[in-house]
Amino acid sequence: MFSPFERLVAGRYLRTKKQEGFVSVTAGFSFAGIMLGVATLIIVMSVMNGFRADLFERILGLNGHMNVYASARPFYDYSQVRADLQSIKGIEQAIPIIEAQALVNIRGTASGVVVRGLDGADFVKKPILENSIIEGDISDFTGHVVAIGKEMSARYNLRIGDSINLMAPKGKATPFGTIPRSRSYQVAMIFDVGMFEYNSSFIFMPLESAQKFFQINEAVTSLEVFTSNPYKLDNLKEDVSIAIEGRAFVNDWRDQNSSFFNALKVERNVMFLILTLIILVAAFNIISSMIMLVKDKGQDIAIMRTMGATRSNMMKIFMLTGASIGLMGTFVGSVLGIVIALNLENLREWIDITFDTELFPAEIYFLTQLPSEIDWMEVLSVVVMALFLSILATWYPAWRAARLDPVEALRYE
Predict the structure, then answer these.
(1) pTM passes above 0.85
(2) Where are the alpha helices (DSSP H) in 244-375?
(3) Rounded to whole angstroms, how far apart are CA atoms 163 and 182?
(4) What pLDDT, on a 0 to 100 scale, did the predictor assign at position 6?
């Protein structure tokens, strides 16, 4: 595509002399702009991919892919519905749960919590819960006990065996009015699922204890349905709706979190567009540096043209010169971005320790670690886009060089 003559001249123009220092500085800024733009785009998109994947994994691991519930009443006939659901192809399990709000009172300090009741056997069916136990044992999850998160444990200085007092939202009716109904429970387990919201405000207790506490004996609030593929639910959701018709209602995780996930998608697309502007600005720097180079090398162009070089040769020389800046910047930027994306959590910990700060507060970002997941197809698209913009930026200056009239360039020499 490029002759040895064209490569030789382009290489010489990339190694500018002292008197051409301003052109060299502009080319250096173009290289730095492409490099930083590509690296930043890869890092930010990897963080957003990791955040989305980690969030999805934890939400889908802690909550059912579909939720079957009775409308405006406790779900009493859930056993038959559960049996019908488990006979549908594609459904792995249906877990009966009780989920309600309560008030926790610990040493005179009260706050709202979400109480979720489920059997110990169903607790271990959720790997993210089973693997998150940092203190206590699943065999102790029976009777009047609870499992609390790491953040709640740290906030109230709770350990295994300590007691907490829960107050139900519905009180006990008496001739003197409604009296708040409360009960003490012993902390049997402490878990860390990696999400601040669950670690700080969720309490798990055995299903039977939850039924007694919320006074819905032999009933649940819903069935959590887990499927073989949580990302393809449309046909399965229709089968579930047919199987439970008239007895319950169904929604899936997309319905429950639609606004949140739509916001993530919009934020991701907008961030991609904004960061692409960095590469676009660097491409404009290439245009300016190449125009200055063409103007500075006008006499050289005229001499080469009089010695037999064609307009095509001139165009290729200056396109190769500008494209080399973009190619080197893209290569260095992609390597830098990938290396940082692969070691982002270690880098965050180093910054936190070195500058004594908290770069990634868990209470704001939901997760306790800075996630990063590289999408190699996305990296490829960033590299291709950067190269395309770099090559496109060289077209006009190269065309100007090819159209330069040798007679006019040498008239006053």
Answers:
(1) no
(2) 253-256, 258-296, 298-306, 311-342, 344-355, 362-365
(3) 13
(4) 79
45 closest CA partner among 275, 370, 359? 275
The angle subtended at Cα 366 by Cα 363 and Cα 370, nearest 5°, is: 105
Q: Is the pLDDT of residue 318 over 60?
A: yes
Distance CA 264, CA 241 (A): 29
Task: Tell me which residue of 198, 195, 241, 204 sits closest to 91, measured CA to CA.
Answer: 241
> Could you tell me which residues come within 8 angstroms of residue 319 by beta carbon, excluding any fewer than 6 positions away?
391, 394, 395, 398
CA distance 267 to 157: 38
**270-290 tens-digit pLDDT:** 888 888 888 888 888 888 888
Q: What is the pLDDT of residues 73-121, one digit of tens each?
A: 788 888 888 888 888 888 988 999 999 899 898 887 888 899 999 998 8
- 3-state DSSP assignment of residue 367: strand
Count Cβ atoms below 10 Å from residue 250 Cβ, excluding itself.
20
Name the residue ranges covered by the structural domains of the chain.
4-57+260-410, 72-247
**C-alpha distances in angstroms, 158 versus 116, 152, 186, 259, 344?**
19, 8, 10, 35, 32
Local structure of 203: helix, strand or coil: strand
